[in-house]
Structure formats: structure tokens, C-alpha cells
Amino acid sequence: LMKPLKMAASSSQPVLSTLQVQTIFFQVPELLELHQQFYQGLRQSQEQQLVGHLFQRLVKQLGIYRAFISNHQLSLQTVRKCNSSDERFQNLAALIKVGVYTADPTSYTLEELLLMPIDRVTRNTLALHDLLNHTPEEHPDHPLLQEALSISKDFLSGVNKEILPRKNSENTARSKRRHLVKDGFLVEVSDGSRRLRHLFLFSDFLLCAKLKQGKQDYYKHEWSVLLTDLTLQSLVEEDIVPTIPAEPQELINDIRKTIHQTRLEIQEEKKQNRGPVNKVLEKTRKKLLDSELWLIQNSPTVPLCIHSKIGKSYTFLLSSEFELCEWKEQIEQARNRNLDSVPLSLSDIMKLTSSLPQLRSTMRPPLQSNID
């Protein structure tokens, strides 16, 4: 969009003036070049599996982002002013297709696209946080990633406190209205494996977390997406089933029988030992817990497929069509009630994640097996 507008600005029938084009797209070419270099570096580093230097180079050029963010409010004001004064520009800015050469192109307004670079800083910081957690301390990338994460967090802190006070006040007002709609333990299919996750549906976004149990429960943030940025995919069963890891039905039936037998053993041991809990009983209970957790992760087969605007897809497995319809209905209703959501900052996500033990309505995975 920027190139044709820039070319038209010097013609006899300009849509925008050269100054307006420069104001709206200030630092956009520089950001594009920065991320193209980063992407090319990642591709070239696949064999060596060393990426720390690339993230360091990226965060050391955050000044480009600062300049973009400082101009962001003026850029939006110019877009809105041009929208109201020129119908040609209004039509151009209202519907911009991204990914036209893919099977699923997505349409955005110009204002939505201009918000994405700000959101990208938060996403990069979250990616760095997760990457560092999965990088051993002895790995040569560890100190580089640690420094890059520190620089990125400091930058975000400065943005949140100094450059975007109005956005922060809007987020504060919105967070006061935010409430938990539904939560529950679901099985997520990720990297070819089934993983038990706690999914939280808030009034404006969806958050996936991993429960860490101990003296005090806490959650690890896995991912989150605004409801306005997601779609629920309707996939034909044969399109997705081959990609879902599944255990043989015979094994699942055997585990159910094992659970039933283990419960009978526990009841018998309780009858014979009315005193303090002994080691045999504790061992049997541990066996029951492991079997039930295995069953919870491996028995669901009904897919719930979520796709985000940035191109990421998430697949959950549910136990029944009824449960699937329930989740879909709640997500659709919440999304339709909140059409003006804005991206959460890293600090918002971290604060919310730390408060999940107090907010949740489902305390533990449903450790109950269905015995036919």
C-alpha cells in the first residue's frame, strides 16, 4: 500500500501528499528490512542451532521501534483524517489483504496493521523468555539470550511507562471489565505430542497455561491470543486425525481396567490397615494417579481447532461433541461481545498469569475414569 501511495503522491491525481505518506508509514521500511535480515539469519543458522547473536542484533536496533512508536499516535491521526476527507483512501485503508499467495489470506484495516509492530515487540519478548527457559545454561546462546531478554524487557517497560500512557489507561479500564468466562483442563496437540493444559477463556482473550503443582500452585504461560484475532476452524475429520498421536483402543481399555483394579486394591488395603497410611497404600495411590493422568491425556479424540491472524494454529482434544459445542459457543459469544480488543502488554500477561490460581474455577484435572 505504501509504494503505490508514494508513487501517486507525485502524480497529477495524488491520493495523499508526500508528507502524509511519510507520516503514516514512518520507519515502516526500516522495520521491514530489520525483520527480513533477522528471518534470513534464522534460516542460515538452522544447522548450527545458534541464534543468540541474531536476537542480540535485533534488540540492539530497538531504536527503530522507539521512533515508530513515538510517531504512532500521529500516524493514526493522519489515517483517520485522510479517511474522512478522501473516499479513495478510505476504500484502500478499509480492507488490506495479507498473505494473498496463501490458502487463507486475511484482511486487515490499515490501523490494525500499524498496531502490529508494537505487538511484535511483546511477542518477541515472550519468545525470548520461552527460548531462554529451554536453553541449558552451558549452551553458548544462554548468556546472549539472557542479555537480549533483559534489553527487550527494559525497552517494553519504557514504552509502557513513557510513550504509551493513553494505551495503558485504555488497557487499565478494559482490565477492570475483564472477567473469566470459562476454564478447564484440555489436551493440546503440540509438536506431535499430547500435553495437558489449562485453558482460560476471558471476556476478551484466550490464555493457555501449564499448571505447576506444589505447596502453592502456579501457572506457566504457554500462549495467549485476542478473541478478535482468532477463528475456530471447521476441519473435516480425515484432514486432522492423521496428525493426532493416538494410542490403540485396546491399550486405552486395558488402562481403564487397571484403574478399576487399582481402586479395588486401595479399598481392600484401607480395610486391612485402619492405622496411618502405609507405603504400600501410597504406592498404589501413585499408580492410580499415573494411570488416570495417562487416560485423561490419551482418551480425548474430538478436535477443537483455533487459528490466529498471525498464522499460528492450536489444536485441543475434547472428550465429547457436547464439550466441543460448549467451548465453541462460549468463545463465539465472548468474541461477539468484545469487538474492540487491543493487544495485552507483556506485564499484563505476566500479572494475569500469576493471578490464575485465584481466578480459576477448575482446581485440578478431572481424575475420574469412565468404566464401562
TrEMBL record:
Sequence ranges assigned to domain PH in this UniProt record: 179-336
Gene3D superfamilies xref list: Dbl homology (DH) domain, Pleckstrin-homology domain (PH domain)/Phosphotyrosine-binding domain (PTB)
An example Gene Ontology molecular-function term: guanyl-nucleotide exchange factor activity
Gene designation per UniProt: LOC115459297
GO biological process: intracellular signal transduction
PANTHER family according to UniProt: ACTIVE BREAKPOINT CLUSTER REGION-RELATED PROTEIN-LIKE, BREAKPOINT CLUSTER REGION PROTEIN BCR
UniProt domain DH: residue ranges: 1-162
Protein name: Active breakpoint cluster region-related protein-like
GO cellular component: membrane
